[in-house]
Amino acid sequence: MAIVPETDLIQPVSDPAALEQRIAALLGEMTLQEKIGQLALVPAAGGGMPDHLRDALREGRIGSVLNEVHVDTVNELQRIAVEESRLGIPLLVGRDVVHGFKTVFPIPLGQAASWNPDLIALGARIAALEAAAAGINWTFAPMVDIGRDPRWGRVAECLGEDPYLAGVLAAAMVRGFQGDDLTQPGSIAACAKHFAGYGASESGRDYNTTSIPDHELRNVHLPPFKAAVDAGVASLMTSFSDLNGVPATGNAMLLTDILRGEWQYDGFVVSDWESVRQLAVHGLTPDDRESAYEAANAGCDVEMTSTTYADHLPSLVEEGRISQQQLDAMVANVLRAKFRLGLFDDPFTDPARCPAALNPEHLQAAHTAAVESVVLLKNDHGLLPLARGGLQTLAVIGPLADDPYEQLGTWIFDGVPEASRTALPAIRNLAGDQATVHHVRALETTRSRDRSGFAEAVALAERSDAVILFLGEEAILSGEAHCRADIGLPGAQEELIEAVAATGKPIVLVVMAGRPLALERVVGKVQALLYAWHPGTMGGPAIAELLFGVASPSGKLPVTLPRVTGQIPIYYAHKQTGKPATPASFIYIDNIEPRAPQVSVGNTSFHLDAGYTPLYPFGFGLSYAAFEYGNIRTSSPVMKLDGAITISADVTNTSDREGEEVVQLYVRDLVGSVTRPVRELKGFEKVRLGPGERRTVGFALVASDLAFYGRAMRLGAEPGRFHAWIGGSSEADLQTEFLLAAAHTS
Ligand code: GLC
Fold first, then answer.
1. What is the CATH number of the domain that holds 640?
2. Domain boundary among 302, 322, 351
3. How far, in Å, CA of 200 to CA of 577, rounded?
4. Same domain, 162 and 213
5. Could you give the angle at which helices 454-462 and 493-501 cross, rounded to 10 degrees?
6. Does 76 fall in a domain?
7. Quick check: is 38 in a domain?
8. Least confident among 37-46, 292-301, 580-589, 732-741
9. Are 535 and 555 spatial neighbours (Cβ–Cβ below 8 Å)?
10. Which of 48, 60, 743, 746 has the greatest number of beta carbons closer than 10 A?
11. Which of 324, 351, 378 is the last residue of a domain?
């Protein structure tokens, strides 16, 4: 029977001192095996309760389980742990609730395109409510790796290429998952992953080596994790990857020096799936015992699914190689999270205390998230929104127009395809009796190379007034371990576009994908381009509303869209180099159309067959409204080191319809002790403006906003000149400048 002192059940965990006393008291009761048991994260049995699981729970050899979503089974797991073990320590119950539970939101990369932290927090909140009803109290999200290589399948799960945007959105997700009070029903512990640098996997191949210079690690890859830590994230997950020769799961510089020493983090660290055991596979250690030592000594508290801790920590502690203090600190980190979750007071789940999944409110939020995630990249001659009255016949062509599963995207273990609302019926519904809508799938899947469906598609296009093509990637082409060496449209999709474009009919291309795709070869053949990522349960109605103008696109790219795969890595916050390319500085070889040959005026940094600019830049996205920027100014030409300045500009909606615009602030530190990016996002605000409306948008900056790790590897702003831009993308040209003074306010 549990012997947790009764008094423990009444002291508030919100009081830090009381919390630490409760932890210390419990630690003092625990045997070595029970302590090590808290460090074991074990797969559940998918609704079953095999004897080995029951026995391990009774003996206190399990601290957390993952992948159990049958609430009755979860409650039985908790009951055994709480009522049949000696100390009655409740379990963490983990699951990858990445972009929704049953109500699926757009993939995180798509949500990032909304640039709407409040909406993203709401999505995480709803995911938490639905997951908590199944007994889950810990999600392995948000994934906050910086994604600058779209060949990498996991770019789908990340929040984009920019540290500032990813940090703001990561913090929003943490707030959404964890709520204001972790003890409340519906709040679940979040887990920032994968710490750190996973997105830099060489050649965009998952699990591959990452070689990241310290400045880049500190200035690019770590800031979103720091933002999650500052937002109170309950846990971090280590990356599979080898970071500069020391895999993250055994990397003391990351897990102890930075996370505990510099950031004073008091949550817990969990490995990734068997990544402790994989330290031997990497060749960091000779065997499981040394892997257990390296991971524990580096600061990895909980071992996910491999059992090197259970097998070898007892002897490592008895030998003193892992001290009792180290072990107690690891266990304390886990117990702290369990106390903060209120599990000791209330370990069981009553589904009735959570709202029903897929309820109208949740679906509406997913609908809004899908609308705001879509990015309008091209709209020649105002083809969009489709004028319902003027279109008698609409051709809807492609394998993704009516596929309830594929639009959900990757990492949707608990999604419900039957609840998915696809685009085809939504288009028919909105077209109503004003247009006849015909559909031809044309390709069985996005990977198919069977062109036998093309003739029917072309014939339909011939007899239609406009064509809407739904192409891209099915869900399996992105996500973990699903990387692509060529990020063009898969299968015969480019040929399908070619065939339909030959009819001369106006084409709207709607892309559903888990990554940026290289669309240079096809973008000239369509008149409008909507990038919908994998939009989730409500993707269909959202896309239909955007097509017909019921809603206006407001998404902005959270990642750069390359022209061709060979440009990768290509991102906006790049360095100047000593020989930067300019628009008139290169010649194209003749196999890339449509471009006029240019005369080379010197050797600069570009590709002969792709130039140096992306197809579409970070931060870019069109609207059915139109926005103009002017009158940029600073509150002062000089910022003191301890002062602030405000940079403002006027934004005007010059169109006759309401629209939303993400106003963005970029700065450039012209000279640094290490070279600085040509631009860095330092602020953004999503504003809704009526027809003709003008608004001043201002961004307050302080020196710490300009801080970076310089040559001395210290975080700080360096005095000097800065350029600043305000506009609707990372190519904003409305510019001002200011000086960061060396002196403090006198
Ligand atoms: C996977 C992923 C990680 C996930 C974990 C549990 O391998 O790398 O993101 O949370 O295992 O499913």
1. 2.60.40.10
2. 351
3. 20
4. yes
5. 30
6. no
7. no
8. 580-589
9. no
10. 60
11. 351
Report pLDDT digits (tens) over 350-381: 999 889 999 999 999 999 999 999 999 999 99
Per-residue b or e along 51-83, where b marks 16 or more CB atoms closer than 10 Å to that residue's CB: eebeebbeebbbbbbbbbbebebbbbbbebbbe
Q: Considering the domain boundaries, does residue 34 fall inside one?
A: no
Q: What are phi and psi of 651, to 5 degrees?
A: -115, 130
Report yes or no: 692 and 631 within 8 Å, Cβ to Cβ.
no
> What is the residue whose two structure tokens read 């916050």?
573
Q: State whether 580 and 708 are in the same domain.
A: no
Residue 162 designated active-site: no
Under the banding of pLDDT at 50, 70 and 90, the label for residue 434 is confident
d(CA 63, CA 93) in angstroms, rounded, equals 9
Q: Which domain holds residue 145?
A: 95-351
Order across the sheet with 268-270: list the strands. Answer: 191-195, 235-238, 268-270
AA identity, residue 81: A
Pocket of ligand 1 (CB under 6 A): 96, 140, 193, 272-273, 480
For residue 339, give the H/E element and its range.
helix 324-340
Ligand 1 midpoint to CA 276 (Å): 13
Ligand 1 atom at shortest distance from the alpha carbon of 157 = 9
Cα distances (angstroms) measured from residue 701 to each of 93, 441, 667, 705: 41, 51, 10, 6
The whole-number pLDDT of residue 6 equals: 47
Both 411 and 528 in one domain: the answer is yes
Active-site residue among 145, 272, 403, 414? 272
Going from the Cα of 140 to the center of ligand 1, the distance in angstroms, rounded, reads: 7
* pLDDT at residue 386, as a whole number: 96
The mean pLDDT of 530-544, rounded to a whole number, is: 98
Atom nearest to 67 CA in ligand 1: 12
- In the chain, what percentage of residues exceed pLDDT 70? 95
**Predicted local distance difference test score (pLDDT) of residue 9:** 46
CA 497 to ligand 1 centroid distance, Å: 36
**Mutational test site, ligand 1, from 66, 68, 96, 201, max ligand atoms within 8 Å of CB:** 96
Is 16 inside a domain boundary?
no
Instruction: Tell whether the model's pLDDT for residue 716 goes beyond 80.
Output: yes
Atom of ligand 1 nearest to the CA of 96: 10
pLDDT tens by residue, 467-493: 999 999 999 999 999 999 999 999 999
Specify whether 347 is located in the same domain as 199.
yes
User: 195 and 319 share a domain?
Assistant: yes
Residues 632-665 pLDDT 10s: 999 999 999 999 999 999 999 999 999 999 999 9
183 in Cβ contact with 340 (< 8 Å): yes
Residues 311 and 383 in one domain: no
CA distances from 426 to 86, 301, 402 (A): 57, 48, 10
Q: Looking at ligand 1, which residue's alpha carbon is closest to its atom 1?
A: 273
What's the pLDDT tens digit per position in 129-185? Answer: 999 999 999 999 999 999 999 999 999 999 999 999 999 999 999 999 999 999 998
Return the HEC string of 62-126.
Answer: CCEEECCCCHHHHHHHHHHHHHHCCCCCCCEEEECCCCECCCECCCHHHHHCCCCHHHHHHHHHH
